[in-house]
Design brief:
Bound molecules: nickel (II) ion
CATH superfamily: Metal-dependent hydrolases
Shape: globular
Radius of gyration: 17 Å
Number of domains: 1
CATH architecture: Alpha-Beta Barrel
Largest sheet: 8 strands, parallel
Helix content: 40-55%
Order of helices and strands: EHEHEHEHEHEHEHEHH
CATH topology: TIM Barrel
Distance between the termini: 37 Å
Oligomer: single chain
Strand order of the largest sheet: 1-2-3-4-5-6-7-8
């Protein structure tokens, strides 16, 4: 039986994909479970133009959800001039809190590398022009990602589901970025990430699920959902020898400031 996660602490899931088909059958229940577990704010990342549109629609129906829009490196090949014009219009919306997820994925290479680099650069420039934070995906492209971020200079955003080493963590922190930590920190074979999490400045740490992907222990291998960010928080608290309440308070404040989550121009309240 599924244990019920209670709302003793308030958390933010700084990266989820609730518009995904994986939630078609029970999306409302998933969102209700998040709220019941104290996950009062969820940043829903866009991975394609349709997913970004769906992210905005979902946020319009749920106070809990804040939309981000972007083209994932997997979908970089879909960034035509038409798509680019449409994405820019979405990005300008005042309710859109970030540009993402964007970046490089040289593991799957579902789009050609040159297309990925072009889409990444264009969207980084768009974020700067609009003064919005970025949500960066980097898989097996650490050197290339860092080179592009260094070339552009200091900015704000998050290296989501961080998978680099300690030197890369230090480099992106120096540039002003946050580090997003999710399910992999709970995996029993995790070595590098727990060490980074132990030493990270507390004010640069964000918690996330990447739901429906990368479920933390004890749900590894199953569909992930925002309520499970609690397991990530518990592991991070353990690694840093802090209380769950302290980790929750700090990471919630970090996400609220970075993504301006109290700023809802198109919503009531
Ligand atoms: Ni993601």
């Amino acid at each position: 039986m599924e244990e019920e996660l209670s709302a003793a602490v308030e958390l933010v899931d700084s990266h989820a994909h609730l518009e995904a088909r994986h939630f078609a059958a029970d999306r409302e229940e998933v969102i209700a479970r998040a709220i019941a577990a104290g996950v009062m704010r969820i940043v829903n990342a866009g991975a394609s133009l349709p997913a970004s549109e769906a992210s905005i629609t979902l946020a319009e129906a749920h106070e809990t959800i804040y939309p981000a829009v972007g083209i994932h490196p997997h979908d970089a090949k879909t960034l035509s001039e038409t798509t680019w014009v449409a994405l820019q219009a979405l990005a300008r919306r005042p309710d859109v809190v970030a540009i993402g997820e964007i970046g490089l994925d040289f593991f799957y290479n579902l789009s050609a590398r040159e297309q990925q680099v072009d889409a990444f650069r264009r969207q980084l420039a768009l974020a700067r022009a609009l003064d919005k934070p970025v949500i960066i995906h980097d898989r097996d492209a650490h050197a290339e990602t860092l080179a592009i971020l260094r070339e552009l200079g200091p900015y704000r955003g998050v290296l989501h589901c961080f998978s680099g080493d300690a030197a890369m963590a230090e480099a992106v922190l120096d540039l002003g970025y946050h580090i997003g930590v999710g399910g992999p920190v709970t995996f029993r074979n995790a070595r590098v990430l727990p060490d980074i999490v132990r030493r990270l400045p507390l004010d640069r740490l964000l918690l996330e699920t990447d739901a429906p992907y990368l479920a933390p222990q004890p749900h590894r291998g199953q569909r992930n959902e925002p309520a499970y960010v609690r397991y990530v928080a518990e592991r991070v608290a353990e690694l840093r020898a802090m209380s769950l309440a302290e980790i929750a308070q700090a990471t919630t404040a970090n996400a609220v400031v970075l993504f301006r989550l109290d700023h809802r121009p198109t919503k009531r309240g």
